[in-house]
């Protein structure tokens, strides 16, 4: 048997994009990992945390700690949720040394999907084939809080049939920002329209990202603009053959 | 009712010319910065940021010590330090001095600190003429507007706007050539410089071990302001003090590069006291007004006090996708953009401007470009928490509070969470035309809903 | 009194008591690269030119200036170096003024101001001027054109070397100014305009 890894699929993938979770599991199993899905998992608590409700976020974070106490590796199809756990759980419990110790143990065990593949599994070529022109959107939290930039590009470079065209400007926010997208919807809409223009300029047919929430925002705006450019999570591209 | 912030944001977003002006100008500044701090130009950029952050942390953590040291050294060079709680104390001091010296005309160089306290209005109310001499600030003073941007105050105006303001306020023929507009301002302001009895400047740094005021600028108006009149008054926030002149070797490398992409600004003046015996020119009197105006409110919180590290380079504005769309005047106070979003609520109290910390997608670009490494996103998050605590205390926004209670409860009860998800998918989310969904669909489409959740599919796998 | 009030607020907010000792500040970061004098001269010239200034090395600054100032109203500083170069005594050059008002009036009407410089910084193209009996502030500021004659051996690598030589510039003068290129603004539509308040033209002569 291979090394055990636990999926934390995130609430958004669980409820809205289940195929992303399945694709992630496929890729990991193909690489020989034993994949499990702790059933009591829900959310990382980021919606409450980013909205200023720290007590509520703390409740959800504790639930997460309990759920994944015994998982040696936790793989997450989202840079944003990974950053929440790896960076902001510590902010939530800075006055609670006992829980903080559990958080610090957890931080070493959570991995954003592409980072897990390149750093822990040590692979770049997962045997995928995807005949398309794609562009890659860097989610802000993956990029700036986790420093993930090369890993997804190295993985995409080894996908047969795939042509990657970089966005320009590359590192601009798509405007999602959680409740920001509805609290400041007009502004968020202006931001994503700029992103859509950049995507269309590349001539790509598919937008790939590590974050389902960015993809939801971008897909919604592409669709509103009447474009048939599609969005896919990296896991879905890597699961294709 | 949309808040004033929302209303102004909407107006700016709807103004295509303004959108283009802001986006182009900030984009240019942004690109220049990236080049100037790149590995080719500044290989030790990250080390400099770390050093700048460490110095600021040390200076703010020991602020009383450095203020007193600064004060002693200014006095030793024949200058005077005056502490002011607020704008009234600043203007009272200047008015009294002007009265004593029989002064009527004041020239001013750019200072965000004086904008904080509406200094010009206060002085003019008492019959003094106080003239802004930075070109952008001069245009804004004539137009009765406040700065749109920390570094580029008239960023939102075109040459045609400037022509209109000049024609209306200066009774000059319509002139749309920028070089000629600049030359006109130069000739008018040159006469002011030569006639003014008092010059008022801001300060980029106060150097404790030297008793010196450091002013960084491109036009030369700050040099004229501080050298031509017989009295020079500096107005600076108490947080501007740094320990040593040698620390400037760090800060000066970062400031201009971050602000405009220049290696150094054209003029960096290091001024310590009035002119000395033998020196041919320079002021006879030298005052430094150290302003609190709410700064001490930011000190008790060990994390949030880093907001006071800011050296006002404006890099966070230029890189911010929010500032680049809603502009400077949407922000309720003189400081705009990400730094404004953390300074304003802390100076004014979080409940005064509860929208500000939330007007961010938390993309983190501001923290990434900050030359003194202020963790702006983290402070925004803390301020959001402060806003919600205050609202809870005052029993405001109770529906939102309740919905996050329900959220936390569902997320800690997996079975209920699963049921709730199932219900939403079966009802069909698009049929619920509640507030947040309407806000979402006002800008973009909803994703198609899957028939089953991941966990249901996983079980059937 | 506001002084005591503010200092008290600062201390109580920081949890410090009056005259409580402070920890050592982080050591100043002063790193001086090894750059040959020839390379420094070349860098200075390149940087000034990149800022649309004129910069050149000459063994005869007097001759250069004599031709540059023909027919112009010129004021020169009281720098002994300019005198030694024979520049102060060139026909048409006014020099030796020690009265503030007289100097200011002369500068306000001059076409060109000529100064020396205490140092120059090679990596940024910067002149370093300390105010003194020899160098007034106004000469490099009021006339529309500024010419500076810098002795070659005064060219430093950059800011770090400057602040290691002058760890506290306040000990030398009430005013040290660093001048990096001509006066400029981009306040209207980000269009660069030179010479808005200070000189729009700057010439740096590197001399022996």
Q: What does this 3D model show about the protein?
A:
The complex is a heterotrimer of chains A (241), B (461) and C (208). Chain A contains 13 helices and eight strands. By secondary structure, chain A is an alpha/beta fold. Chain A has two domains: 116 residues, no CATH class; 113 residues, AF0625-like (Rossmann fold, 3-Layer(aba) Sandwich). In chain A, helix 11 packs across helix 12. Chain A starts with a strand and ends with a helix. In chain B, 51% of the residues lie in helices and 10% in strands. The two termini of chain B are 50 Å apart. The mean pLDDT of chain B is 96. Chain C has 208 residues and is an alpha/beta fold. Chain C has a single domain, classed as Rossmann fold (3-Layer(aba) Sandwich). Chain C contains six helices and twelve strands. Chains B and C meet through helix 2, helix 3, helix 4, strand 1 and helix 8 of B and helix 1, helix 5, helix 6, strand 9 and strand 10 of C. Strand 9 of chain B pairs antiparallel with strand 9 of chain C.
Write the layout of secondary structure elements.
The complex is a heterotrimer of chains A (241), B (461) and C (208).
Chain A: E1 4-7, H1 11-15, H2 18-30, E2 34-36, H3 46-50, H4 54-67, E3 74-76, H5 79-92, H6 97-107, E4 110-112, H7 113-120, E5 129-137, H8 140-145, H9 150-157, E6 160-164, H10 180-183, H11 185-202, E7 206-209, H12 212-224, E8 230-233, H13 234-239
Parallel strand pairs in A: 1-2, 1-3, 3-4, 5-6, 5-7, 7-8
Chain B: H1 4-14, H2 16-36, H3 45-61, H4 63-76, E1 80-84, H5 87-101, E2 105-108, H6 112-116, H7 119-125, E3 129-132, H8 135-143, H9 159-170, H10 178-195, E4 198-201, E5 205-207, E6 212-217, H11 221-227, E7 231-237, E8 241-242, H12 248-260, E9 267-271, E10 285-291, H13 315-319, H14 323-326, H15 337-348, H16 365-369, H17 376-393, H18 398-411, H19 414-427, H20 435-443, H21 454-460
Parallel strand pairs in B: 1-10, 2-3, 2-4, 4-7, 5-8, 7-10
Antiparallel strand pairs in B: 5-6, 6-9
Helix pairs in contact in B: 2-12, 3-12, 15-17
Chain C: H1 2-14, H2 37-50, E1 54-57, H3 61-68, E2 74-76, H4 80-84, E3 93-94, H5 100-109, E4 112-116, E5 119-121, E6 126-130, E7 145-151, E8 155-156, H6 159-165, E9 175-179, E10 184-185, E11 193-194, E12 201-207
Parallel strand pairs in C: 1-12, 2-3, 2-4, 4-7, 5-8, 7-12
Antiparallel strand pairs in C: 5-6, 6-9, 10-11
